[in-house]
Write a structure and sequence with these properties.
mainly alpha; about 100 residues
Length: about 100
Amino acid sequence: MSAQPEHAPVPPPAPAPTAAAELLVRIRADRRAAQWVPAFERDWAEALEDSRHSYSLTPLHEVVRGWKARLAAAPAVDAFIASGMDDSDGIGLDDVLGARP
């Protein structure tokens, strides 16, 4: 009997080598660029340093995936805010995920 699971989860495909550069172009074109560009560059620098120490590209892939998701969700967030719906009962992201290191 093997200790391996019968159905191992398939990891998401790796982003293209140019994905970070293309993502940065999209972030710079967004109306939130003044706030998001420095945040992306900080996240990228931290992931790059982690990759150098771990010899793994996973931290870089996670940054690209996270920022792609953020850009994809931005129109829905804008629509929600523009709708005037009450969001006062929301929960802070830090309360859900914990504080960022």
